[in-house]
Amino acid sequence: MDYFKIQGGDPLQGTVRAAGAKNAVLPILAAALLTDGTLRIPNSPKLRDVRTLSTLLEAMGCRVQREDSGAIEITADGDILWEATWEQVRQMRASICVLGPLVGRFGRAKVSLPGGCVFGVRPIDMHLKGLAALGADMRIEAGFVEASVPGGRLRGGEVFLGTPAGPTVTGTMNVLMAATLAEGRSVIHGAACEPEVGDLVDCLVAMGAKIEGKGSPTLEIQGVEQLGGAEHHVIPDRIEAGTYLMAGAITGSRVRVEGCVPAHLWAPLDALQRAGYEFEIGTDWVEILPRRQRPLPVDVTTQPFPGFPTDLQAQMMALMSLADGTSVITDRIYPDRYMHLPELLRLGARIRRQGSTAIIEGVESLSGAPVTASDLRASAALVLAGLVARGSTSVHRVYHIDRGYERIDEALAGLGARIERLEEA
Ligand code: EPZ
């Protein structure tokens, strides 16, 4: 297993380029199951999660071609197994995105329940509710979701997918994908408005789907007989872009992120501006300007898009660990998403947790130490803290971070950070 060794204290300087969005490319890869045509994604990011899902799709009978550039082509034109096993799904929750396409195209699916993850219960009740509203018989048996459609083809339906924590992103995606091949009209109320959902809409429309309401909480789908192949460029990864801007913030440096969509970043940019940072913003780039003083304390509550994203909560907590005052962070999406908190304490942060809220009393400086990554975004937060902690920080189990960031160590080293990837003895 690899780990990162980081020597803290160096300012960063330079430009990084945002890769294609992980949370857009994963459902879009699953959408290839909806057609016997070829789906080509020229700018797929080179991520562990993309490889994991590609392996699952190949095991189901899809033909997958990956190029060195990251470009990927998927064709589901042979005998497709409409089953995803526990071994396959447990590796990555997003595998649940094959459920909707399988039910929509084949009228059958047997997909292992994904189970929880380190930051809490991740139910899929809304995925099942939505597919049932389209006429599928959904049942849970021996740890699997089993779906079958009387007569073999879904019929259009109307459903509200809101949850106590707001809309469900992959739940919206699963029901949307299934509805594209249902007979008649479907309406999804309380749909997630994340940019990644909009990117999936664009891809499905390019494949021949009829969808209205992109970016709104109400998606209207007119089912079609079949979908075809397409070529689709995924949107840039707003969480990766936000993570690199926070790397600039925590080190007080000038860092430019190119190939991103500023409109996907207003909430994190607003939080950073309230923390005292200034920016230059272009059509497809954002540059954070150097800041000598400590960040100002900022209160943040995570929300569905366009609110502050839960996927940047851990990174913001790392930054607020050094604020000149006390900050309050509440995660309304995942109340238990605080695996990074005890590791930040090891670096000298002063943070107290009360349920879904963390109170961060900023300190002058952090001191480097060995820490352990636990999930994708918590890992990123620990790397950010290591960039500024006095002395050396080693971040262990970095396979978590490789799931969602293309070689983050190389990108940060390119900005001047002293970070190297080493192999555990
Ligand atoms: C997506 O997960 C993202 N993953 C997550 O990113 C992200 O944190 C999350 O959305 C929230 O933005 C992908 O897109 C692959 P949800 P998803 O369904 O779809 C509750 C990362 O780091 N809920 O939007 O699984 C749920 O408990 C990952 O890249 C139900 O109650 O999340 C949560 O509180 C981590 N019933 C809220 O909704 C359901 O059936 C949002 O969950 C589904 C969800």
What layout of secondary structure does this protein have?
Blueprint (H helix, E strand, L loop, with lengths): L1 E6 L5 E5 L4 H10 L6 E4 L6 H12 L3 E4 L5 E4 L7 E2 L1 H6 L7 H8 L1 E5 L12 H9 L3 E5 L2 E5 L9 E3 L8 H11 L5 E5 L5 H12 L3 E3 L5 E5 L7 E2 L6 H13 L3 E5 L7 H9 L4 E3 L3 E4 L11 E3 L10 H8 L5 E6 L8 H7 L3 E5 L2 E5 L8 E3 L3 H13 L3 E5 L2 H4 L5 H7 L3 E6 L2
Parallel strand pairs: 2-15, 3-14, 6-7, 10-11, 18-19, 22-23
Antiparallel strand pairs: 1-23, 1-24, 3-5, 4-5, 7-9, 8-9, 11-13, 12-13, 15-17, 16-17, 19-21, 20-21
Helix pairs in contact: 1-2, 1-7, 4-6, 5-6, 6-7, 8-10, 8-12, 10-12
The chain binds ligand EPZ.
Ligand EPZ binds next to helix 1, helix 5, helix 6 and helix 12.
Distinct helical segment count: 14
Count the beta strands.
24
Q: Which residues form runs of ≥5 with pLDDT under 50?
A: none
> Nearest-angstrom radius of gyration?
21 Å
Bound molecule types = ligand EPZ
